[in-house]
Design a protein that fits this description.
13 strands, eleven-stranded mixed sheet, Cathepsin B, Chain A, single chain, two-stranded antiparallel ribbon
Length: about 400
């Protein structure tokens, strides 16, 4: 009996010691939304590089509701299909010296609606290849191969392009996306794509693109040098603090923003977070600081990006933005919608962002991005010009 009691006591001592040395559960990030602007439900771009269209459509759908219109789902593939055709004509005209790919920019949508109108999603789902979600693994390769063959044949033969190549490409577009309706019914009325676009309570001419870089003059427009800008669309250039003032003012006034950004940074997670952590040596005691300095670069990075709890983040400067853009550290690889604000458990502000990767994510299709992340990684934002502060509108010469 005595032996049993000693054994139990030993087990109890080991258990107690284990509890004392056990690492506490990570605190994690806890967010409280402070302002939410109504948007349409989260979509799923699935296996397609069309975030630029999904994000801008959601942005425009929120604009329609803000202007008093009905909640609706506009057809992303209507614009994607037209963009492929417009891009193809330019690609052939430039002998293939253009980025012909799935990517694009927000102005592809607004300019596409001006040129081609728009239809509701249920009128033109654009899924004519056997799946219920976008899947471009085949069609993109087929489209480019066709165009490259057209260009190659003309260059090798030194003969003019045939009169058939555009019709052939249209046939491919019809095959993969479906034939385009000339008219359709919506809420008991007949529309053309153009008349439906005209019936919306928003004006595509109200939407502008804004960025912040030093390789062009501030308060002027320039063609932003990103590969997916096949349309050679222009952006207004603002100092960093004024670009962020546009974001904050728009949200405060109830406007969403279409956000072009870079999510290749280690601070972006698939669990719904975007931060730019930095070691907080000032808050460390002597022992902690000494230990941190002795860590290898690999171990420091692992500690910084553990995402166990909110911490210090980088202070972003205009030059940091420029250097990251010039060095390809910031690229145009994703588009989302900034549609709200939030704070973490420490009261630090964040932006709430709607993504187009379905709702099977930590925050059901939404992400939280810190202010430094947005300052650093924004390539451009699309916003209603009426959402700009008056002084900035005046500097840009906007009426």
């Amino acid at each position: 009996m005595k032996k049993l009691l000693l054994t139990l006591a030993a087990f109890a001592a080991v258990a107690a010691a284990a509890q004392e040395t056990a690492k506490p559960e990570p605190e994690g990030y806890r967010f409280t939304d402070t302002k939410i602007i109504k948007t349409t439900p989260v979509k799923d771009q699935s296996r397609s590089g069309t975030c630029w269209c999904f994000s801008t459509m959601t942005f425009l759908e929120s604009e329609i509701m803000r202007a008093g219109g009905e909640e609706m789902h506009l057809s992303e593939m209507w614009i994607v299909r037209h963009s492929f055709k417009d891009k193809a004509v330019k690609y052939v005209r430039l002998h293939g010296h253009l980025n012909f790919a799935e990517g694009g920019a927000s102005h592809d949508v607004t300019e596409g609606i001006k040129a081609h109108g728009i239809v509701p999603f249920d009128v033109y789902p654009g899924l004519n290849y056997g799946t219920d979600k976008p899947d471009f693994h085949e069609l993109s390769a087929v489209f480019k191969a066709y165009l490259d063959a057209v260009i190659s044949a003309a260059e090798k033969s030194r003969k003019p392009l045939s009169t058939a190549w555009e019709k052939g490409f249209d046939a491919l577009l019809d095959t993969y996306f479906g034939a385009m309706p000339e008219t359709f019914e919506h809420n008991g009325r007949e529309y053309t794509p153009e008349s439906f676009a005209a019936s919306l309570p928003i004006d595509m001419n109200d939407y502008i693109d804004i960025t912040s870089f030093t390789h062009h003059p501030f308060y002027e427009r320039f063609v932003i040098e990103i590969p997916d800008n096949w349309m050679w669309g222009t952006v207004y250039n603002l100092p960093l603090d004024e670009m962020m003032a546009v974001v904050d003012h728009a949200l405060a006034e109830g406007y969403t923003l279409a956000w072009g950004t870079d999510v290749s940074d280690k601070g972006f997670t698939r669990t719904g977070l975007g931060v730019l952590p930095e070691a907080d040596l000032e808050s460390m005691d002597g022992t902690e600081a000494a230990r941190w300095i002795k860590l290898s670069d690999k171990d420091r990075e692992a500690a910084l990006y553990s995402f166990e709890k909110p911490g210090k983040e980088k202070t972003i400067t205009q030059q940091m933005r420029q250097t990251a853009f010039d060095n390809y550290d910031t690229t145009d690889d994703h588009g989302m919608v900034i549609m709200g604000t939030a704070v973490d458990q420490n009261g630090t502000p964040y932006y709430k962002v709607q993504n187009s990767w379905s709702t099977n994510t930590t925050y059901e299709g939404f992400w939280y991005f810190s202010r430094p992340f947005v300052e650093y990684k924004t390539t451009s934002i699309t916003v209603n010009k009426n959402a700009l502060p008056k002084d900035i509108r005046k500097k840009l010469g906007l009426k």
